């Protein structure tokens, strides 16, 4: 192995030396020395545990128990799952993921979609049916009507289901994933309450209507895994952020593509990223860096947060309802967060200090996705393998860790667990086969069941149910009312008369939901009845943002009325960031006109709406100058390819950075400045705060760490030189090219270096 040792004995010794060196970098204390030395005895190897032994490795919240639902050979490397109406599990198996530290054979078509079923009701799957095979790294799936959406990079397919066998196959999107590597490609395929399908690590959404697939732009969200709460708001995260999410329904806030950042979306919901493993976790990609591990060699903060789920069932008890659970496979644990609504804000905190809801002493426990089941249980997908870091960013340190404890093999394991209260015997809810059963299920206490009921009604276009759905709208059950509202929207049967009573409610959340569905019913004949309700909503701070977001649809019918309402909103709330961004969403290509009106009304240069509007105008100017030159792409083809593979997914296709992930590359003095500094960053990575174009970026606004690619054997020094030459001349950047010899010189200068640079070092 390049950069490693020739024998297992030397690799083991190298790993111990790395651990001792790490301990020496930690604050003084006997715990550091004792724990690093104990690694020789206690963690020299990482044995493969049987499913039964793995259960004994868990440390779980008191009052709960964890049960095995499926294990190899029934399931192998599960990464995504969905339940069907019969309670069966449809699972994506990413069998080809990282067969070794070089990723050898990763493109072999050995992935599968399988159906697991519990036929005797004992809570364990006892049958396995292969629905699709010969897939390359399948990563997401969703049942829609009589078919299955399947994400197999770079394509998104819709495969009809014929008696549990694949039927006709339709290409939904040839570029569902574009660029990026396995860790940085879209996934999730969540069917949300608004009848659209959303993905993590993506700015696209999909919907099947009248037999045809629609695709639209939406907010860019998260990295791996996506979920919704009982109001249809989306939640997600990135690898170093516990929980991110939206304050408002997902289909709003994208009226103005000139806005790079829309307040109220992609918010940091739980800013506390501390983790509490129950075992030393040196096998993380940056375990050699000071502060990544504590004195006992345990991960301090999230480094692989993924697979969030909002728990929406009473089975766990009232204290757990609407809690957010997040997986951390690098630290072998699952975190519980408690969420609270205040106005339209959602904020959360960790449920415990110093411990986790679930943690394991087994290094191979790799939870990557969490789900609420139709029985109220919390389901855990465990890849159960040693290597979970993709080759693109794999450090020599972690390669040594993998070799030291033999983490490469085996590759044919995988587990699915469910967590339930002790002494409980939850039963899987079977929704029934009749439309009457589905309407009844809209009132069910389990959020997954309500979601499924709505989907069945919409997919089956059950127009005969419209009277019953309208009856639910008049009930007192807010959750079922919201589902009935969107079921009517999905049936194209919703009317202004259905929505009007909900706009009169004093319940702000329900009113926001009613406002968000209004675009589907607005027309000339009902505008006179709906406009006063929109105007009233615009005067209340809790609903003003949503009222502003739907005004572009009002403007198509009555431009002057929409402008009047919009003016009343920004004059009433000129210093509210959320409302300011909602107002700006109406000003596509009219931002200068709006700014002039604001200046005329009030000359105060510190008004929030003015400052945010001026920022949008700067972004527009920069974007107009930042067109990629096709000649540049032709000159540096490998540079362009590497940019799409390793840079674009965090820094954006336009080089302007992505909220919560990374700062801009365009107009960046780091990119266009001293070549040696840029080469060092690309090779060895960058950690901590960074200043770009006069603004300081730091965690949690962005991911605080950028990995280097010096140890990646896929990229030659000539390739890396091309990448930097490309970046230094892309968009608005203009700087000298980087040569292969200059890359080699920096490699020689920092030979043997593993840790990332800080900006202070590079000064």
Detailed description of the structure:
The protein has 763 residues and is α+β, with helices and mostly antiparallel strands. The protein has 4 domains: 414 residues, Neuraminidase (6 Propeller); 60 residues, Leucine-rich Repeat Variant (Alpha Horseshoe); 119 residues; 133 residues, Cytochrome c-like domain (Cytochrome Bc1 Complex, Chain D, domain 2), CATH 1.10.760. Helix content is 31%, strand content 22%. Strands 1, 19, 20, 21, 22 and 23 form a 6-stranded antiparallel beta sheet that branches. It has a 4-stranded antiparallel beta sheet with strand order 2-26-25-24. α1 packs across α4. The chain is globular and about 75 Å long. The relative contact order is 0.09. The N terminus is likely disordered.
What's the arrangement of secondary structure elements?
Elements: H1 8-25, H2 30-42, H3 51-56, E1 58-60, E2 64-71, E3 78-83, E4 89-93, E5 111-117, E6 127-135, E7 140-144, E8 147-152, E9 155-162, E10 165-173, E11 187-191, E12 197-200, E13 202-209, E14 212-221, E15 227-228, E16 234-238, E17 241-245, E18 267-270, E19 306-310, E20 324-328, E21 333-342, E22 345-350, E23 358-360, E24 367-372, E25 378-382, H4 396-404, E26 415-421, H5 435-441, H6 447-459, H7 466-473, H8 478-490, H9 496-503, H10 508-517, H11 527-538, H12 544-549, H13 551-555, H14 559-572, H15 577-584, H16 591-601, H17 608-625, H18 630-635, H19 637-651, H20 669-672, H21 675-684, E27 686-687, E28 690-692, E29 695-697, E30 705-706, H22 717-727, H23 740-749, H24 759-762
Antiparallel strand pairs: 1-23, 2-26, 3-4, 4-5, 5-6, 7-8, 8-9, 9-10, 11-12, 12-13, 13-14, 15-16, 16-17, 17-18, 19-20, 20-21, 21-22, 21-23, 24-25, 25-26, 27-30, 28-29
